[in-house]
Every structure is written in structure tokens, then in C-alpha cells.
Amino acid sequence: AERQALTEEATKTAVVLPFIQALGFDVFNLDEVVPEFISDIGTKKGEKVDFAVKIDGKIAMLVEAKPISSRLGDNQYGQLFRYFSVTEARLAILTNGKEAWFFSDTEAQNKMDQKPFFKFDFQKCERTQIQELARFQKGQFAIDSILEAASTLKYTRDAANYLKRQIERPDDEFIRMIG
Q1: What is the pLDDT at residue 163?
Q2: Rounded Cα gap, residues 158 and 21, in angstroms
Q3: Global pTM?
């Protein structure tokens, strides 16, 4: 599948639409899934995000697809970042068909965080990741619990990274605290 999904269009068709559908959204209903969603941002007119996913007429998620050959990173999310601030969405997904990065606004409201709070690997997903995905299903989509989980995941990850750094190369303050 990797050879065929070299283009962004292929990623959308082969991975993104089935993924949105698996979350319980009707990809053929324009009231639920809007492809090529246009929003004017300042001086940039007519810029499009690949999909806007709606619940009860309100934009719940923005989804931006990239070619499978691209690595998800800083330069990939600029467009999504701009969109996030001008829509009511509190959740954004960036994907290249191999993995999906989930972003929210846990640090400043209406401003997309720089780091994803959750990464889903389509090729080697664990049971816990699949359970985490359940939060984003249409039937149980509750933005408050998603944001709470996002916050918790972020702090847990930060704490784990801190401990890992201290184990590898403890700083004086950590040694004093332990001592």
C-alpha cells in the first residue's frame, strides 16, 4: 500500500476517509465531513484544510493529510495551526497515512499546541492506543473529556521524560531531592 499512497490524494482516499468512517462519521454526508474546507485567514484567502468533521453542525475536528513520503513535523502543521485559530474546532489531526498526530489547545485556548498530545501509528498500534482512539468516536465524542485526557497525557509524558533524563544524567537538584 505504501507505493500507491505516495500522493496526498492517495493518503486521503486509502487511509484518511476510512479512518474518519471508522470513527463513526458518514464520509458521504457533507453535513458531517466537509472535504477541502475553506476558511479565510487574514491575508491568506481561500486556504483549505483537507477535512472538517462536524458534530451537530459545529466543527469538531480538522484533518490535514500529507503524502506518505513526508515526515510529520514542524513545517507540516503550519497550515493546520492557522486554521485552528479561526474555527471552533478544539481538535486537529495531522496524518501522512502511516501515523496520525492529534493536537488540541491545552496550553492556550484557540491556539493549537505545538506538540501532539497523542500519536497513533497505523502500522503498529497497541491495544492502549486503540482504546485511546475510542474517545474520538462520533457516538461518544465529548470534547471536555478529550481535553482532560490530552492534558493528562501531556503531563504524564513530561514527567516520564524528566525521570528518564534524571536516570541517564541526574542534575544536582534531583540528587539533593533524592538524598
Answers
A1: 79
A2: 32
A3: 0.71
